[in-house]
Design brief:
Order of helices and strands: EHEHEHEHEHEHHEHHEE
Largest sheet: 6 strands, parallel
Strand content: 15-25%
Structural class: alpha/beta
Strand order of the largest sheet: 3-2-1-4-5-6
Radius of gyration: 20 Å
Distance between the termini: 55 Å
Number of strands: 9
Shape: elongated
């Protein structure tokens, strides 16, 4: 019987820093956050070598734990990640999902072992990774597709910020835009306020509508009636949803 992974996923994320560029970190983390909560995040590599220089700079402002593994043998970093992931799968019952970020097909056996233990496995790597690695995961997402989405977000944010009718009320809109792009949506494009708020706080833990002279998220969103539309149910304490109005993503002819 296939395991039901419809419940909330609690991820442990392992970056092979010697195999993945640090420039992809933010976009990859946003992709994982769409699929569940990130409980543990680690990056591995030999931090004494020049090729980890960009990672050293990146982790200065990124909340991710670093792990040192000297290159004292073939696949030293790979082996350490494999051992740590299996140990975590056995000892930490709060983790039900693992994300391995690497293009190296040597992690396929780890993916199979984790799945044997009832864990959900998300693989993230380049599209040219070998089929055995991609097919060993429950889901494999290519970095190329993730970066396309990230570029689209930047383009949409630029169009919004360049729109003359929104310039006077723009503060806060960029944060909402991030939440809209990275939250789960239904088939009609609606996003629940709860999902939106959760997504925003994963990226911006210090987010507070009062910073934008609003008492709550609803008041902040209501500042943009030409850009966002809102609906609610008929409950005593209503649930709210919002979606974006696409006309503000169309450049003026």
């Amino acid at each position: 019987m296939n395991k039901d992974f419809s419940t909330e996923k609690n991820f442990a994320v392992f970056f092979d820093g010697e195999n993945i560029s640090s420039e992809c970190l933010d976009a990859i983390m946003s992709e994982i956050e769409k699929k569940g909560d990130i409980i543990i995040k680690r990056v591995y590599g030999d931090w004494t070598t020049p090729n980890m220089k960009s990672w050293k700079e990146k982790v200065n402002d990124s909340p991710i734990r670093v792990f040192q593994q000297f290159n004292n043998g073939p696949n030293a970093t790979d082996n350490t990640i494999i051992m740590d992931a299996i140990e975590l799968a056995i000892n930490n019952k709060n983790i039900n999902a693992f994300c391995i970020v690497s293009t190296d097909h040597g992690y396929y056996s780890l993916a199979l072992r984790l799945r044997e233990n009832g864990k959900y496995v998300l693989g993230i790597g380049r599209e040219n990774s070998k089929d055995i690695w991609q097919n060993s995961c429950n889901e494999y997402v290519t970095i190329e597709n993730i970066l396309k989405g990230s570029e689209l977000l930047e383009e949409k944010q630029k169009i919004v910020s360049d729109n003359e009718s929104l310039k006077s009320i723009e503060p806060g809109l960029d944060v909402i835009e991030y939440g809209l792009f990275n939250s789960r949506i239904d088939t009609d494009g609606w996003i629940s306020f709860s999902d939106l708020g959760s997504t925003i706080r994963k990226k911006y833990p210090n987010f507070d509508p009062r910073s934008y002279m609003c008492n709550n998220l609803l008041q902040l969103i209501k500042k943009f009636p030409e850009y966002l539309e809102i609906k609610s149910d008929d409950c005593l304490h209503p649930n709210y949803w919002l979606r974006e109005k696409e006309k503000y993503y169309k450049e003026e002819k």
